[in-house]
């Protein structure tokens, strides 16, 4: 299921759009939360909210099966706003239940939404409704959509002014990678999991040089896709601050997060 296919089969595409729109209105979307861990201490730093569609009769659909179609229209803004509202509410609830901890919540915001004037209100509303400290909300954006877009960059500065942290997602997969680091108001860089290849000396060197490049901009990093302990070792060696991946924690339901990650935390 990709957007190109839906583009060709217009009827199917438009049915999917209608169904996604219905899903947003009828709470068929659900969130999973994946932990982000401090490499140095192993402590929990926060979570990334990842959306799924609990489609009646079809089970849980991963974002790859509906986000690309939603990105063809303003529907993606509705999905992202639903995620913003629910993830900030969840983070605020966890903080109030488990004590005054600095637990961050990262939310993915699509390029189309970052390019829309409404993003400022959508983020402000989520913060006001949830009462979450703006510094604990991390907005993840991808680099490809931001190249050369003046409104998108102005919107990022406005989110920054509101106290929200900005994270550049999937770093290393787009074109003008390094240029973006000085052009955008960023707080964090997420290194794409394709870089976390420890198999050969050359691939380890490639990772090291990527880390050096990002560090030259003074930005803390999250390495994505940590699946093995030898990858975690490379993160320690290179001083990457934070890590995320199946070896450290899978995306979980809120109830599972309560049981596995938050129940033993001293407040
Ligand atoms: P992403 O932002 O890069 O999110 C990380 C993806 O990598 C997630 O897939 C996660 O489950 C997966 N992952 C985490 N650790 C590992 C690992 O160790 N190995 C491997 N192979 N994969 C790992 P998921 O949940 O299927 O999400 C896919 C993409 O969908 C996300 O990539 C993001 O671009 C998009 N997405 C998810 N939620 C939202 C949302 O609320 N709004 C928007 N606009 N996009 C979203
Ligand atoms: Ca992300
Ligand atoms: Ca990513
Ligand atoms: Ca992505």
What does this structure look like?
The radius of gyration is 18 Å and the shape is globular. It is α/β, with parallel strands linked by helices and 267 residues long. The N terminus is likely disordered. A hairpin with a 3-residue loop joins strand 2 and strand 3. The structure holds ligand C2E and calcium ion (3 copies). Ligand C2E binds next to strand 2, helix 4 and strand 6. GO terms for molecular function: cyclic-guanylate-specific phosphodiesterase activity. Pfam families: EAL (PF00563). This is EAL domain-containing protein.
Unreliably modeled segments: 1-10
Structural class: alpha/beta
Radius of gyration equals 18 Å
> The biggest beta sheet, please?
8 strands, mixed, barrel
Question: How do the SSEs run, as a string of H and E?
Answer: HHEEEHHEHHEHEHEHEHEH
Mean pLDDT metric: 90
Which molecules are bound in this entry?
Answer: ligand C2E, calcium ion
Give the end-to-end Cα distance, rounded to a whole number of Å: 45 Å
Provide the β-strand percentage band: 15-25%
How many individual helices? 11
Oligomer: single chain
- Overall number of strands: 9
Inertia-based shape: globular
* Helix share, percent: 40-55%
- How are strands sequenced across the largest beta sheet? 1-2-4-5-6-7-8-9
